[in-house]
Amino acid sequence: MHSSHDDLIELFEYVWQRFTDRMAGLSDAEWRWEPIADDRVTLRWRFRHITEILRAERNGPWLGLAAEPTGEQPDPADSAAEALSDLNAAFGQWRVLLAETTEESLSEFIGPVGGHYGEATRRAFALHIVDELVHHTAEAALLRDLYAGPGHE
């Protein structure tokens, strides 16, 4: 029997695979491209933000797991390859945490550690993370599509 815990893990893996497939062959020029004068509209910003979400110190405690230091966020990457490596490491950390949860633990409230989100379930928190992942990876794919347009051959 397939549990919602299994479904959640499969969803994360599907979203991550779709993203990594979409970023295959990413060049440094694409990664550095700024379509407008706002760093938030770049692959660099998207990648950094996704890395921060997946490595956030709150993740373990909000999932009901022991607080393990995630270490400092990595320095900003100097290349597309380094940024993708940082992303994969961050996803690996998140994936380990998610695998340590259980169907039962995901149904529990986050509790006081979650502040004003304490009454939300741990499953709701995991769904929030997958929503962020889908949202920002889709934006990254769009930026690649825009870069591929006229003027960047």
Textual characterization of the structure:
The structure is a single chain. The protein is mainly alpha-helical and 153 residues long. It has one domain: Four Helix Bundle (Hemerythrin (Met), subunit A) (Up-down Bundle). Helices cover 60% and strands 0% of the residues. The protein contains seven helices and no strands. The radius of gyration is 17 Å and the shape is elongated. The mean pLDDT is 94.
Silhouette: elongated
Question: Which class in CATH terms?
Answer: Mainly Alpha
Average of per-residue pLDDT values: 94
Q: What is the helical fraction, as a range of percent?
A: 55-70%
CATH-derived architecture: Up-down Bundle
Number of helices: 7
Instruction: Determine the strand fraction and express it as a percent band.
Output: under 5%
Our Rg estimate from Cα atoms comes to: 17 Å
CATH topology: Four Helix Bundle (Hemerythrin (Met), subunit A)
Low-confidence parts lasting 5 or more residues at pLDDT below 50?
none
CATH homologous superfamily caption: dinb family like domain
Structural class of the secondary elements? mainly alpha
Biggest β-sheet strands, sense, barrel: none
Work out the number of β strands: 0
Q: CA-to-CA gap between the ends?
A: 50 Å
One letter per element, helices H and strands E, the order comes to HHHHHHH
Number of domains: 1
